[in-house]
Specification:
Strands 1-2-3-4-5 form a 5-stranded mixed beta sheet. A hairpin with a 2-residue loop joins strand 2 and strand 3. The protein is globular. The protein has 4 helices and 5 strands, in the order E-H-H-E-E-E-H-E-H. The chain is about 30% helix and about 25% strand. The longest helix has 15 residues. It is of the alpha+beta class.
Length: about 140
Amino acid sequence: MTSDPSTVIRPSECRDSAPVWRLLQDFATSYTPNQALFESDFPALISRTGTAFVVAEQSEVVVGYLLAHALPTLFAGGPILEIVELVVDPEKRGEGVGRALVEHALTEAWSNGCVEVVAPTRRAAAFYEHLGFEPTATYFKRKRP
């Protein structure tokens, strides 16, 4: 699988709000996204220091996005990048869009001094393993009451 040469990866901008919101509907299976919160948080999130928020475009149409945060650590010997959201339009899956987004994140992480890139997921384990990631930990979560 190779990425489509017409796929452009670029930083997300405010104009991407509607297509990212549309894609988010496919990502959130355990949560119900709140559009009012999304609309207030999106502009701040895309400009936040230490946050990588990029979109994949084909023919000027957003077909995927990746959201990641750089986290300082002591245990890893440097910062790590955690991919928290990776979404590709269902009609574009299997065409290399997700791979292009992850490869972009890896390149940026290494150039910014990150020592590791992680992706907490169960649903996409095979995808990340195919890209050379190794399973490492189980996440526990506790929601606010």
